[in-house]
Write a structure and sequence with these properties.
Layout: H1 5-8, H2 14-27, E1 33-34, H3 46-57, H4 70-84, E2 93-96, H5 99-110, E3 116-121, H6 126-133, E4 137-142, H7 153-159, E5 164-170, H8 182-195, E6 198-202, H9 223-228, E7 229-234, E8 247-250, H10 253-264, H11 272-283, H12 287-308, E9 314-315, E10 323-327, H13 335-346, E11 348-349, E12 351-352, E13 361-365, H14 370-383
Parallel strand pairs: 1-11, 3-4, 3-5, 5-6, 6-7
Antiparallel strand pairs: 2-8, 7-8, 9-10, 10-13, 12-13
Helix pairs in contact: 3-11, 4-11, 5-6, 5-10, 12-14
Bound molecules: pyridoxal-5'-phosphate.
Length: about 375
């Protein structure tokens, strides 16, 4: 049986494939250090698990409204107001099966075949594939390391054509760790406003932010920007809930309704008892997030310090998320050669930047212990001949 043309056009997820190769080597007993995964190494906080388990015990095991349980949508609405200064009514919020699903639904609900979606590179690898899946055209726009891998308004304007319908902005960013300032967002928003370009604002790493950096939600900039924006967020990264599959999109009423309608015919609701866990995540104590952020922040400093000792490797200090994007071009290898040889020779798994649209880099995730970071960076130094 032949898969559809649509599916044949997809690029397999390289992050998952390197990760599974590293896991297979580990399972064989090899001493592999994995910097590949895009998920927290912490467990979900106990009070969140307890809420989900309690709801299971109470028989909360049936369908819910496809848009999510009312109390979770209300809690998200309150959170968006309190943390982000965003005014979204519960009816404008649709709970999905992970922020990945939220992004996909957002594109499915707003893009038509032939529409172009501007995606600044390096990008989270699912954006272009999602755009293709809905029949749209991803337009990849490289950003510059000297601009901290952030798109400038000029780059945005130059990439625009009469077919441009959407821009994807991911701040804090995967794989760059870059965080856009309010001014930088305002510059991009002005360009979007000129041509009525929709903004898909993926804010999943919002809480994982370090030092002086501050997260700004682009939809707060003005009513007009708000009306063009679909704000995506979720529970996977801040609350270490990747396996729970819970995210949401907040959008102008009409788009939210459209997303609800298409979701009602595809996945229906996100898992009932997982939603109760998410409710506890937003309503419960937030010190669990603070502790995780403090730990990531220490690891970021550790990894950056170790990278400073390897002059052949360059990087832009990440301000958010839990990745460092490392420029390996001085080694004379492309990103796939580097990642494959590093795994074979030193048993260290990283993700080749080609997966993110930048063949000059590799991504190192620091969602792993300080001990792994120290040992792994020693091996990387040996691999590039720096020790
Ligand atoms: C930028 C970005 N957006 C969305 C997601 C998806 O998160 P979720 O687990 O909620 O689907 C990821 C996960 O890696 C991500 O890096």
């Amino acid at each position: 049986m032949e898969p559809s043309t649509r599916v044949q056009e997809l690029t397999p997820s390289l992050t998952l494939s390197i990760d599974s190769k590293a896991k297979a080597m580990k399972a064989e007993g090899q001493d592999v250090i994995g910097f590949g995964a895009g998920e927290p190494d912490f467990d979900t906080p106990e009070h969140i698990k307890a809420a989900a388990m309690g709801s299971l015990d109470a028989g909360f095991t049936k369908y819910t409204p496809s848009s999510g349980i009312p109390e979770l949508r209300a809690a998200i609405s309150e959170k968006l107001k309190a943390d982000n200064g965003l005014d979204y009514k519960p009816s404008q919020i649709i709970v999905n099966c992970g922020a990945k699903h939220s992004c996909y639904n957002a594109m499915l609900a707003t893009l038509d075949p032939g529409d172009e979606v501007i995606i600044p590179a390096p990008y989270w690898l699912s954006y272009p594939e999602m755009a293709k899946l809905v029949g749209a055209e991803p337009v990849i726009v490289p950003t510059k390391a000297e601009n901290n891998y952030k798109m400038t308004p000029e780059e945005f304007r130059d990439a625009m054509t009469p077919k441009t319908k959407m821009i994807v902005i991911n701040t804090p960013g995967n794989p760059t760790g870059s965080v856009y300032t309010e001014n930088e967002l305002a510059g991009l928003a002005d360009v979007a406003l000129d041509e009525d370009i929709l903004i898909l604002s993926d804010e999943i790493y919002e809480k994982l932010i370090y030092g002086e950096a501050k997260h700004v939600s682009i939809a707060t900039l003005s009513k007009d920007v708000y009306n063009l924006t679909l704000t995506v967020n979720g529970f996977s990264k801040p609350y270490a809930m990747t396996g729970w599959r819970l995210g949401y999109v907040a959008a102008p009423e009409g788009v939210a309704k459209a997303i609800d309608s298409l979701q009602s015919h595809s996945t229906s609701n996100a898992t009932s008892f997982a939603q109760k866990g998410a409710l506890a995540a937003y309503k419960g104590p937030q010190d669990c997030v603070k502790q995780m952020v403090a730990e990531y922040s220490k690891r970021r400093d550790l990894i950056c310090g170790l990278l400073d000792g390897i002059p052949l490797l360059k990087y832009v200090k990440p301000q958010g998320a839990f990745y460092v994007l490392v420029d390996i071009s001085a080694t004379g290898q492309n990103s796939t050669q580097f990642a494959e040889r590093l795994l074979d020779k030193q048993k260290v798994a990283v993700v080749p930047g080609i997966a993110f649209g930048d063949d000059k880099t590799i991504r190192i995730s620091y969602a792993t212990s300080a001990e792994n970071i120290e040992n792994g960076l020693k091996r990387i130094a040996t691999f590039v001949g720096a020790s």
